[in-house]
Write a structure and sequence with these properties.
The chain is an alpha+beta fold and 170 residues long. Helices cover 26% and strands 28% of the residues. This is GNAT family N-acetyltransferase.
């Protein structure tokens, strides 16, 4: 199967919500609000990047987005990846990896210093994400599930990471 990654368009909003909902349905760490989170971030103008994967028929089968985060060490240019979603019918086929790599390319082009993610270490380690000494999430999260990786920065700073208020309110 071939998937093509592109920027989301306004017409994609409904399909993105459906993919995000399907991808997180029954996930042990999901609270069922991920699709609404994307909608609220979009409405707040807080998405630095929002990419979709489409199949040969042009149907949205995956989505990834990022929004700026604030490090209390006053280090600018960091992004939070949230969420990454692939429709269950298309998982384990490289769609998620293609979306993450495309997001990294976009964020590097925008000059982002690095990216943080709350997620499954077994999945995100393959992209270079790792838990970092001294870098903490503003939320209480399971050990090892808050990870970071530098994009253009030489190091991952020690700091507390604060997400966009839309995420913090979720």
């Amino acid at each position: 199967m071939t998937a093509y990654v592109r920027d989301e368009t306004p017409a994609d909003a409904g399909a993105i919500a459906a993919v995000v909902t399907a991808a997180f349905d029954g996930h042990p760490y999901s609270d069922g609000t991920e699709a609404a989170l994307v909608t609220r971030l979009r409405a707040a103008g807080a998405l630095s990047a929002s990419l979709v994967a489409v199949d040969e028929a042009g149907e949205v089968i995956g989505h990834v987005s990022s929004s700026p985060v604030v490090l209390d060490a006053d280090t600018g240019g960091w992004e939070g990846l949230a969420p990454l979603s692939v429709h269950p019918d298309h998982q384990r086929r490289g769609v998620g990896s293609a979306l993450v790599q495309a997001l990294f390319g976009r964020l590097r082009a925008q000059g982002a210093a690095g990216v943080v993610v709350l997620g499954d270490p077994a999945y995100y380690h393959r992209f270079g994400f790792a838990a970092r000494d001294g870098l903490r999430c503003e939320f209480d999260v399971p050990a090892g599930h808050f990870m970071a990786m530098a994009l253009t920065a030489s190091v991952v700073p020690a700091a507390i990471v604060h997400f966009h208020p839309v995420i913090a309110a979720s």
